[in-house]
Design a protein that fits this description.
Rossmann fold; seven-stranded mixed sheet; binds guanosine-5'-triphosphate; binds magnesium ion
């Protein structure tokens, strides 16, 4: 799981037609999804995903076309898919009601999803919406990695303990969870390795 992708080029806003595999990033509003995507893509100085001071701003599905090179020179080309965050209380009810059909239509109707990175704040318990999303992904038989965001807010031993606790709470093997920090870059190599492994599998 330590394969390093390099030379990531991301073109934001491109719609995702065709047959390139898609890696989807999902999580509640303000969990750190845009920050993680920018760090994941190595785009901390020229971010592609907007980190907003107003949570819940991203209300559409954004696609970033990515070219990367895995260990051994293997080329990888895929879409990073940024889903709108869910569960933000101050978003109008009409917008919240529209969220689920949009997401479910995309997740159930897209044949080229190689896997989903589900984000959960390392400091908090998974919300009912987080659990519902993970159940939905399992029902669709989509491979899932869980990124535990904002890991820099905890000390190293606390981070490891929370990873084990959250694995138990979500009934997932601990190696499916990655402690991640967009601030320090911790967990980036592991997440890249996990995504590379997803891309190596044939899509359903
Ligand atoms: P919305 O798109 O608005 O729903 O939020 P998001 O999930 O994309 O989160 P975003 O990346 O915009 O980050 C939300 C807040 O958390 C911002 O204030 C970020 O600076 C902060 N944040 C995100 N990731 C980290 C992290 O790894 N460490 C710390 N300390 N703060 C983070
Ligand atoms: Mg965002």
């Amino acid at each position: 799981m330590a394969v390093e992708l390099a030379g990531v080029v991301a073109v934001p806003g491109a719609p995702a037609p065709g047959t390139l595999p898609q890696i989807v990033f999902s999580g509640r509003s303000n969990v750190g999804k845009s920050s993680l995507i920018n760090r994941f893509l190595g785009r901390t100085r020229k971010p592609v995903a907007r980190v907003s001071a107003t949570p819940g701003k991203t209300q559409q599905i954004n696609f970033y076309r990515v070219q990367a090179e895995a260990a051994g020179g293997r080329k990888r080309e895929f879409y990073v898919v940024d889903l709108p965050g869910y569960g933000f209380a101050r978003v109008p009810e009409s917008v919240r009601a529209a969220w689920r059909p949009l997401i479910e239509r995309y997740l159930s109707g897209t044949r080229h999803i190689a896997g989903v990175v589900q984000l959960v704040d390392i400091r908090h318990e998974p919300t009912p919406d987080d659990r519902r999303m993970l159940e939905y992904l399992a029902a669709l038989r989509l491979p899932v990695l869980v990124a535990l965001t904002k890991a820099d807010k905890l000390g190293a031993s606390m981070r490891a303990a929370r990873r084990a606790e959250l694995a138990a709470a979500l009934r997932l093997p601990v190696d499916q969870l990655v402690a991640f920090s967009a601030v320090t870059g911790e967990g980036r190599a592991e997440l890249l390795g996990g995504v590379d492994a997803l891309l190596a599998e044939p899509v359903r």
